[in-house]
Amino acid sequence: MPNVAVLDMAGNNVGEIALSDAVFGIEPNAAVMHMSVVNYLANQRLGTQSTLTRSEVSGGGKKPWRQKGTGHARQGSTRAPQWRHGGIALGPKPRDYSYTLNKKVRRLALKSALSDKVLDGSLIVLDELKVDSYKTKVVVDMLAAVKAGKKTLMILADNNQMAVKSAANIKGVKTAQVNTISTYDIINADSLVVVKDAVAKLEEVYA
Questions:
Q1: CA separation (Å) from 144 to 8, 113, 139, 196?
Q2: 113 and which of 28, 43, 64, 186 could share a cystine (Cβ 3.0–4.6 Å)?
Q3: CA geometry: angle at 127 spanning 165 and 112, to 5°?
Q4: Closest by Cα among 196, 189, 1, 182 to 107
């Protein structure tokens, strides 16, 4: 059962917390984490590429010449693919790249990512996050005090809008709740700052 120091907002050690082996102490599965990251990135794709077919380009309503007797090949429209300004044959159209992973795979990937952060020593447990007003400086000072990395993911126990909006303008800092975190966000972050209450919720949901 891994033990991690608990820090206050000033960076002082105020205790220690024993993390659950089922969530924070498993052997990280690199293959499953890779699958989860690829799935996340695929689901972010908009797939908006599009080309115009012969029915969508402007013009081409009139048959360019009569069917027989001209010596030319027969043509029905000047907007067929072989013509200049014609439509595109078999070109890309908007599509959905998203797909779903098995629930057990998603859970294993998330627990692997959390356990990997514990092994790296880049998981920071915060005693509590007190933000009484919309002040970016409060969050900046806290991150500096706990020695968080340039890219930090803050996991909150609840929808603390003051904390979320106070951190919104800080470059490289992202906030998430227990039910909105993703494996990609955890892996992408240099440091993981988890509020103590959020640790309990993570263990309750994923253990």
A1: 12, 24, 9, 18
A2: 186
A3: 85
A4: 182
